[in-house]
Amino acid sequence: MKVIIIGSKGFIGQNLVKYFEYKNYQVWKADVVVDYADTDRYFLIDVSNSDFNTVFHFQKYDICINCSGAASVPDSLKNPMRDYYLNAVNVFKILSAINQFQPECKFINLGSAAVYGNPQTLPVSEDAKRNPLSPYGFHKLQAEQICEEFYSFFKLQTCSLRIFSVYGAGLQKQLFWDLNKKANSGETFTLFGTGEESRDFIHVDDLARAIERVAQSTYFRADVINIANGEEVKIKDAVATFFSFYPYDIRYSFSGDSRKGDPLNWKADILRLKSLGYHPSVKMVDGLKGYYDWLHVE
C-alpha cells in the first residue's frame, strides 16, 4: 500500500511514518518543516500559502492520512482564524487536490473528540450530539463536514477520526509534559480543575494500530469513528500514576477552577473501532512509564 502522511513532522505524524514503514508500506511525507536531511519521498509545504497540488499531481497513493493542523484549545481561543485555516481550510485544500488529480485516493482526517463538548451520557458514541466548547472543536467539526461534502458531491472516499487523548514518548505538550516541567521545578504547584475530570487516553502506538485498522477495513463513506481505548480515567488518578515514577515526593493541589474550552468527562464508545479488529495493547501504567523514561533519558 502506498501512503502519504501530511503533517509527518508532528508527534502523531512521526509515529505513523515509523509504524507504516516498519510494516513495509511505501510511505511519502509532507509538512511545513524544512529538513534537508529528509529528501526521500518528502514534500515541503509552503506554510504561508499551502498548496497540495504537487503532492498529488505526480505520485499516486492508495491512501492519504492528514495529521496536520493546530491542536490547542487555548490557542484557538486566542487566534481562531489561524486554527480555522489549519484545521478546516487545509482539509478542503487537500481534498480539492485529491479530487482534481487522483479521486481514487482514500482520505483519513485526524479529527478530535472535542466535537462532543460535554457529552450528556457516557460512553459517548459517534451518534451523540455534537456540542463543541471551543473554536478548535468547531473547526474539527467543520473538517468532518468537509469530508462529508466531498464524499456526497464528488464521491471521494473519506473518513474522519474523533481522536481522544493521545500520549506517548515524543509528545512535547499537553498534560504529562506540563506535569514533568512542574515536577522538575521542585516547588508546590496548582493544577486546573478538581481532579475528578476524566479522559479516555490512548497511547500513540495503539493509535497507529487503530489507524491501520481503519485504513484496511472501513468503508470510507464519510465514516466517523471514535479512536480511544474505551476507558474513563480520572485526571487525579492519571497524575498520581505519572508522579509515582519520580524518586521524590511532588507537592501539588487542584484549584477547583475549570479551564475555558475544556470538557469535564470523556469516555468513548469504541464498538465501531473494535468491529474493525482493533484491541488496546498498551496499558496506561506502562505507557506512562515509557513516557517518563523518555523524558529522563540521560
Task: Describe this entry's structure for a reader.
With about 300 residues, this protein is an alpha/beta fold. The protein has a domain at about 1-170 and about 200-230: Rossmann fold (3-Layer(aba) Sandwich), CATH 3.40.50.720. The chain is about 40% helix and about 20% strand. It has helices at about 10-20, 55, 75-80, 80-100, 135-155, 175-185, 205-215, 235-245, 270-275, 285-295, and strands at about 1-5, 25-30, 40-45, 65, 105-110, 160-165, 165, 190, 200, 200-205, 220-225, 235, 250-255. A seven-stranded parallel beta sheet has the order 3-2-1-4-5-6-11. A two-stranded parallel ribbon has the order 7-10. Helix 5 links the parallel strand 5 and strand 6 (about 160-165). Helix 1 (about 10-20) crosses helix 7. The longest helix has 22 residues, at about 80-100. The protein is globular. The two termini are about 40 Å apart.
β-strand amount: 15-25%
Structural class: alpha/beta
- Name the strands of the widest sheet in spatial order: 3-2-1-4-5-6-11
Largest sheet: 7 strands, parallel
CATH homologous superfamily label of one domain: NAD(P)-binding Rossmann-like Domain
* Helix-strand string: EHEEHEHHEHEEHEEEHEEHEHH
Q: What gyration radius follows from the Cα positions, in whole Å?
A: 19 Å
Strand elements, count:
13
The low-pLDDT segments are none
